[in-house]
Amino acid sequence: MPSESEHNRKTTVRALLVSSQIVLVALAWPAAVRGQCAATIYGGADDPVRVDSNHVMTEGQTWTSDEYGYWTPYVEAWQEFMAPGASSGGPITDGEVADADPGDTAWVELTTILNAQGPGTYWDYGFHWAVANQDYCPGWYDEGFYYDGPGLTISRPTIAGIPAFWWLGSGVLSDHGYYAQSALTANPNGASGTPSWSVQMLETGGVTLQCNVCTDNVATSTSFSCGCYPDVTIWATYGGFESEPFNVTIVKPSTLTLDAGYPQDSNDQDGYLSLYQWSLTDSCGYQDAGLDGNEVFGAWTDDYFNSTGTHNNWGLPTAAQAYSPTNLWTDKIWVEPCANGKPKCTNPQKPTLSTVAVRHNTPWTFYIGTQTFGSGVPVESDTQQNYLDHGRHQ
Amino acid sequence: MSIYRCRLSPVIAALAGCAGAFAQQAGIAAVPPDDPEVYFGFFSLQRAIQKDISAAKGPSAGAALQRAAARHFNVSESDFAILGRVSNSTLGGLSALGQEARAYVAQERTAGRTPDPGRAAAFHERRLALLREGAGALQKSMSPAGWGALHSYINDRYRSHIVRREPTHAK
């Protein structure tokens, strides 16, 4: 990129050259050839050409209306660039000088790789001049002129789609309007051809794409983002010109928070019912209503046998699955009837609950996103403990 | 010499009154509509593009550039091919005219005579006639839609970014 001082120096040298010609030939001017020498100098630039998706070409040209070969046209051209939002631009190439035979057009073409330079406005900036053959046209000169050509504004391609979608567990693509996929469409913004897609995953978030070379695509989550910020970036590249990054956040149901007042212990026939209620929130901190859920029991341990040498005979519970129209989830731990139980269960004791442990299973795991047991996103995992007169998650 | 350079973008420059930055340089003028010389510049542009297409790396790159150029001028590829042929033909005619003019000047110079101003004017008229014929050949050969788009491009868009100036003589 030429500096302003270098640029001015070139201009000054050019001016001195022209001036010296004037001094040398002024006295030798034969007025009779004025008609043949009075050509017109033309110069300018066409609109920049988007050669392909990743290249823009600008050109500057100079010619004269001279048929006699008296005038040699010259052009020095730069390609200039202004970034989006900037108030001024400047050259991104060195000045390139060209001349042409008299009667022909002096021509400079400059091409820039768009992906490297980036989006913005490109145009030709040129200095146009012609030099007269002093043998035939003594005293004639042209001091030249600068000209800014028209600009072409280039934008990067973009990707349209929903930038935040869900991780609902392996193989779960949707659940009551919660989607683990996003339809994506590439907008070429003036580029041509079919884009190639690529993905960069910075932390834990991950997606797979339905196709590699296509205009419409589908991203499917394969894991979840680390926190509530985008850590997956997708690009659609046209002939080497990358789109603006499309940043994706993959949200997951993440947390069950025990609601105030729970657990609640109550009589259930001659046994007990311990009721839990949790509020579900996601990795962005929002409450998520209208999802499926399921529980899976872990291995059972006979605490009563371990402490007394006698096996308990309490029936094992059946795992449950459900849909919750709200973000509230409940679990009921109950044991009844107890008439033939070993040990015999009781109603919750007051004022102090029993400390006699009968059995426990671990890990007890609760999944959100599907009613298929063991699938979905685990949001709670603990030990479910049965005592003689109550149950607990602990 | 005072040369004014507008460092703003064309868009900003237009807003700031610099569009036509050339107007602040002495002697620079816009080119009037349907000036034959605009066609000379445009035919030269075509020849340069044809050279670029021929020099492209591989047939597919050349074809891509040809498509891009046709799209740039809002014409079909078949009309673009006609444009290339007419441009080359017209420039060839002008080249022959230039050789004839230069031979005449050389002949007069050898004979110690000053070239006849009437012949000079005639050469210039023939140049303009060749350019007008080139424009006419485009109109005749291209599809009406193609010619309409191209004529608009040349006479409006392209012409608006070409300026001219008469050289001066030191007295």
Could you characterize what this model shows?
- The complex is a heterodimer of chains A (394) and B (171).
- With 394 residues, chain A is mostly beta strands.
- Chain A has 3 domains: 4-154, Sandwich (Immunoglobulin-like); 158-251, Immunoglobulin-like; 255-393, Immunoglobulin-like.
- In chain A, 9% of the residues lie in helices and 46% in strands.
- Chain A is built from 4 helices and 32 strands.
- In chain A, the strands form 7 sheets. In chain A, strands 4, 5, 6, 8, 10 and 11 form a 6-stranded antiparallel β-sheet that branches. In chain A, strands 26, 27, 28, 30, 31 and 32 form a 6-stranded antiparallel β-sheet that branches. In chain A, strands 13, 17, 20, 21 and 22 form a 5-stranded mixed β-sheet that branches.
- In chain A, strand 4 (71-82) and strand 5 (90-91) form a beta hairpin.
- Residues 1-34 of chain A have low confidence and may be disordered.
- In chain B, helix 2 (36-55) crosses helix 4 and helix 2 packs across helix 5.
- Chain B contains 6 helices and 3 strands.
- Residues 1-23 of chain B have low confidence and may be disordered.
- Chain B has a two-stranded antiparallel sheet.
- Chain B folds into 2 domains: 1-30, no CATH class; 33-161, no CATH class.
- Chain B has 171 residues and is mostly helical.
- Chain B is globular and about 55 Å long.
